[in-house]
Design brief:
The protein is about 45% helix and about 15% strand. By secondary structure, it is an alpha/beta fold. It has two domains: about 170 residues, Rossmann fold (3-Layer(aba) Sandwich); about 170 residues, 3-Layer(aba) Sandwich (Rossmann fold), CATH 3.40.50. A seven-stranded parallel beta sheet has the order 3-2-1-4-5-6-7, with helices on both faces. Strands 10-9-8-11-12-13 form a six-stranded parallel beta sheet, with helices on both faces. The chain is elongated.
């Protein structure tokens, strides 16, 4: 029996590929024992047990970015976390650590290094995080989602996608999807800004919903938990707080407007769905980088958040909605850079690490 310690969490961007990889490891190794290492505060505290997996938690350890009393205590707190993970590795007979970034990964990488067991790193974003840069120093087995990600020993494996997305037959699920969302035969624009919503996207789509529907389309719009959103009550426009059947939404979507998180970019490219990406404007610019390959291939258009206005909808979105040939060309281009078997590729990398002697 092989025991895998999968470390990561905090956000869906870390937790979802971790869960997809766990699912694949269990599929190919029926005797696999999976332990997930995370924190009690992160999204993993809810999603991991819900997936039927064991969760071991350590204290949340944000890497200090400035000198303060908290940063002075960081080395001692990190040492305690590493000691805790080493104990898990020894007591549970962990054979390999697979890290996905986030607060739990750095202690896991260090503990695995001390215990001399294999390490595998998966970096979801085009701009790598601090924890994964550290992990990449200790292993040659580093999988990345996007080509050109600046991290040591990178090899492209793609994003481990949820099984319902990776195996989605869009054509076969069309009828079910239209019934589920109450849609007719008209083409569908899917708009999503993530679980918390995207203020600019929400406001612009709400204010232009009448034009979008008048163009002969239907709109599925996931608005997130936005207190400012008011439904304009337009027939053919379907605002949802949250979409718990995103597989069906993707099955029926002819065009998508979305943020450019790594999972979103990977899902749309893997399924060959043309997109307009409106990257999150705060942070280190990773979402622009995430979308770069599919935009360069011609599978998507990128629009700055500040430029996503009703004028942009009139000049660009409506034009694309009316041009079937352009959308078809974009779909083909998107599919050309998409990877649907990221889970299998990463699992294969894990098996390779297990088969090689640890330095």
């Amino acid at each position: 029996m092989t025991t895998y310690l999968l470390a990561g969490g905090g956000t869906a961007g870390h937790v979802n590929p971790l869960l997809a990889t766990a699912d694949e490891l269990v599929r190919i190794d029926k005797d696999a024992s999976i332990i997930v290492l995370g924190t009690a505060e992160g999204l993993e505290s809810r999603l991991v047990p819900a997936a039927g997996l064991e969760l071991a938690t350590i204290a949340k350890l944000p890497f200090p970015r400035s000198l303060s009393l908290t940063s002075l205590a960081y080395p001692a707190r990190l040492a305690r976390a590493v000691s805790q993970v080493r104990r898990i590795i020894r007591e549970r007979g962990v054979d390999v650590v697979v890290g996905f970034g986030g607060y739990a990964s750095a202690p896991a990488y260090l503990a695995a290094r001390f215990e001399k067991i294999p390490i595998v790193v998966h970096e979801a974003n085009a701009i790598p995080g601090i924890a994964n840069k550290l992990g990449a120093l200790f292993t040659r087995h580093v999988g990345v989602t996007f080509a050109g990600t600046p991290i040591s020993h990178a090899q492209v494996v793609g994003m481990p996608l949820r099984r319902e997305i990776a195996t989605l037959d869009r054509t076969a699920r069309q009828k079910e999807a239209r019934t589920y969302f109450g849609l007719d035969a008209r083409p569908v624009l899917l708009v999503t800004g993530g679980s918390t919503g995207a203020a600019r996207i929400n406001a612009t789509i709400r204010d232009t919903a009448d034009k979008l529907v008048a163009a002969g389309w239907q709109v599925i719009h996931t608005v997130g938990e936005s207190r400012d959103f008011v439904d304009p009550k337009i027939s053919g426009y379907h605002p949802l707080t949250y979409c718990d059947r995103m597989d069906l939404a993707l099955a029926v979507a002819d065009l998508v407007i979305a943020r450019a998180g790594s999972a979103t970019v990977s899902e749309l490219a893997g399924l060959g769905i043309p997109a307009i990406f409106v990257p999150y404007p705060v942070g280190n610019g990773e979402q622009v980088k995430n979308a770069a390959d599919v935009v360069e291939a011609g599978g998507a258009i990128i629009c700055r958040d500040a430029d996503f206005t009703p004028e942009f909808v009139s000049s660009t979105v409506l034009e694309l909605m009316s041009n079937d040939a352009s959308r078809k060309s974009m779909a083909t281009a998107s599919l050309s850079v998409g990877i649907r078997d990221g889970s299998a590729r990463l699992a294969a990398l894990v098996r390779t690490a297990l088969d090689e002697p640890t330095a």
